[in-house]
Amino acid sequence: MDDIAVETRNQALIGEKVKAFRTARRMSLRTLGDATGTTASFLSQLERGLSGVNTSTLIRIAGALGISLTDLFEEAGPAVGQVLRKHERPALPPAEGYRKMLLSRRPIRDMEVYIGEFDPGGSTGAEPYSHGDSHELFFVIRGEVELTLGEERHVLSAGDSIEYPTSVPHKTVNIGRELAEVIWMIAPPTSVADDLDKYLPRSGS
């Protein structure tokens, strides 16, 4: 019950954040849809908390808005000395067999840290994805996963790690028979625009 409540809360929070950033930048739903390969109808449902969204689409939305992916999950508040309990972790909308939660919080903005859980056979999605041009460290806490990195395939077990540019398409699959847990550390945070006017698409409406 608690997990469902957290997921529902975060889905609503993400929708509210997308709408707040979009309206602050005077972008129409259609403009944002064109920039992210989605539709105005889908974005409207997302903003009202009526639709889920996968990781790759959220990354495109964050990039079009000129923000970090982190900005779509975090609630405002001080982070210095603040404990983040396991059940309080901001979470991406869950996908089948895969859960990804945010560990880093403001004002720590130099890197993003996520923890992921994969059921046997669970993956980050059907296709590899890339995001920004940062440095990513991937660490396996438990289980066995296969990481596709461009044309390479790496089988990693508990205690193994690998580093790569976030611009290289990548995908993770749990190839073991038990739950796999991993950590992603990204520096600097991806989808951050230093100059919003430069990175944001211009809106005609």
What's this entry about, in short?
The chain is α+β, with helices and mostly antiparallel strands.
* Apparent shape: globular
What is the quaternary state of this protein?
A: single chain
Work out the count of structural domains: 2
CATH structural architecture of the largest domain: Sandwich
Strand content: 15-25%
For the largest beta-sheet, the strand count, sense and barrel status come to:
5 strands, antiparallel
Name of the CATH superfamily of the largest domain:
Jelly Rolls
Distance between the termini: 42 Å
Return the CATH class of the largest domain: Mainly Beta
Structural class: alpha+beta
Low-pLDDT ranges: 1-6, 191-205
Strand order of the largest sheet: 1-2-8-3-6
H and E order:
HHHHEEEEEEEEH
DSSP summary: helix tally: 5
Q: Tell me the Rg in angstroms.
A: 17 Å
The residue fraction in helices comes out at: 25-40%
Provide the CATH topology of the largest domain. Answer: Jelly Rolls
Task: Count every beta strand, where a strand is a DSSP E run of 2 or more residues.
Answer: 8
